[in-house]
Amino acid sequence: MKKDSKTQLLDHSQAKVRLLGEYLKRYLNIIVNDRYTERIKIYDLFCGEGTYENLGEGSPLVIMRQVKDIHFINQAKLNKIPPIDCSFNDIEKAKVEKVKQSIKDKSLYYPSFGEIEYTSNEYSLELSRLMEIIPKLRKQKAFIFIDPYGYKHIRASDIKNLLAKGNSEVLLFLPTQFMYRFDSNGTPESLKDFIEEITSYKDWRENDSVWKFIEQLKDGFKNYLEDKFVDTFTIQKDPQTVFCLFFFSSHIKGFEKMLEAKWEIDTEQGKGWNFTNNTPSLFVEQKTNPLEEKLYTFLEEVPRYNGELYEFTLRAGFLTKHINEIFYNWQNNNKVEVVTSNGQKARKGAFYIDYKHFKEDNKRAKFKLTTYGTI
Ligand SMILES: C[S@@+](CC[C@H](N)C(=O)[O-])C[C@H]1O[C@@H](n2cnc3c(N)ncnc32)[C@H](O)[C@@H]1O
Q: Domain tally for the chain?
């Protein structure tokens, strides 16, 4: 019997909510301790029914587990943390009722966490409500999870508006396989409209794989959202089907937390999840480290400072531990010279590529290649 993704939480959907949970864990941990944020708001706009027939847990329960965890961890340390308000919406009232019941049955909410709200509105209505609320938030942060069945409701301009104030992050699921299939097969108006917003449709190149389709969408979003941070997490359901989560952030630290979450799930490539359960295929070619190539080209242009290198690494979808590994290697092989701001050679292994130095001392060290032409 074919398993139904609407009543059962199948493995690929499990991967989706796992990324959500891994991210929230890291995000909440930073925000509750930043000594600035006074309130956090989490919105799940297509929340579904919470518990599936096979007892799998959907997004609302995954969110509440993280909220409960961060609360109890801090309570144990006697840390007072800001309230975290959660809002769950789905057009089907019965589903929202089920969510409410599951949260109650599993004791996932206590009033001391913050407010909780259940609504059954059409997405567009929720969106206009958010457009009212988010710009007015002061010293508050919002996280919005958008997980529709299709993409016809979704507009890139809405995402742009949600991010406009710089106090929110968005995680959006797109059924890229279905979009791609149409793209190569007579594009319907809805897809044209979607693409038209992020990149002029006449500039859209036909893709010969869903992976390239996703890359082009990502580049389109990056271009369209200018200074915002954009990343993807692919979910390969079977050899023919690839869906994708898109993550949008206004803040480099939130972005770093998302990258950490995806590298936690895909320790090999930080790219996504696949149906083979993450075991790297024997047939996958071991290519040169793609960050190493990009970094080399970046440094070939001009020498770079630690702050620039921090941003460069994250925007390329990698973590600081990856760039540090490369520099250790290069330093051992005399391929790079690292000089501190007072003109002296930096201590071996001291690279200062992290958020703290990005914020406070972004020209602490300068990196210059000593050999050009080959890595
Ligand atoms: C992919 S499911 C959500 C799954 C859920 N996030 C989870 O992790 O279990 C999409 C949900 O969107 C709801 N939905 C469909 N059209 C909607 C609309 N126009 N506005 C709000 N919700 C809608 C459906 O009832 C369905 O529960």
A: 2
